[in-house]
Amino acid sequence: MNIKIKELPEYEVTFMRRNGSYFEPQDHWGKLVQWVVDNELYPPNHFFIGISLVNHGFMYEKWPPNSEYDADFDRDNLEFNLNNLAVDPEGKCKVDLYVPI
User: Fold this and answer.
1) Integer angstrom CA distances of residue 80 from 48, 68, 72, 84
2) Segment 29-48, tens digit of pLDDT
3) Is 1 exposed, middle or buried (0-12, 13-18, 19+ CB in 10 A)?
């Protein structure tokens, strides 16, 4: 795990909100991806930024308890998707996880 402290700039965003379980059909992703492709708004020139609702326990168990920082649990974690998984030579999704402090 490579941890860096960063202050994020302001971003202009387009978003789609979906409420429901991760276990329900994920049809919304197809609609969003098609809109992104049609408008050429994909990595590396643009980001997919997800609000992480998953508890990244490993993050909170090792860091910030062993650092001088406290996690800000009133704000959401952000996941910055850095590549296009469909064309990645390794078939991997590269993500930066931002934890507010």
Assistant:
1) 6, 24, 18, 12
2) 788 888 888 988 876 677 77
3) exposed
Q: Is residue 5 part of a domain?
A: no
Q: Taking CA 27 as the corner, what is the angle to CA 21 and CA 32, rounded to the nearest 5 degrees?
A: 110
Quote the domain boundaries for residue 87. Answer: 42-98
Domain count of the chain?
1
pTM, entire model:
0.66
25 located within any domain:
no
> Tens digit of pLDDT for each residue in 39-77?
888 766 777 787 876 666 666 676 666 778 888 888 888
**Contacts with 99 (C-beta within 8 Å, 6 or more apart), sequence order:** 56, 59, 64, 71, 77
Total Cβ atoms within 10 A of residue 67: 12
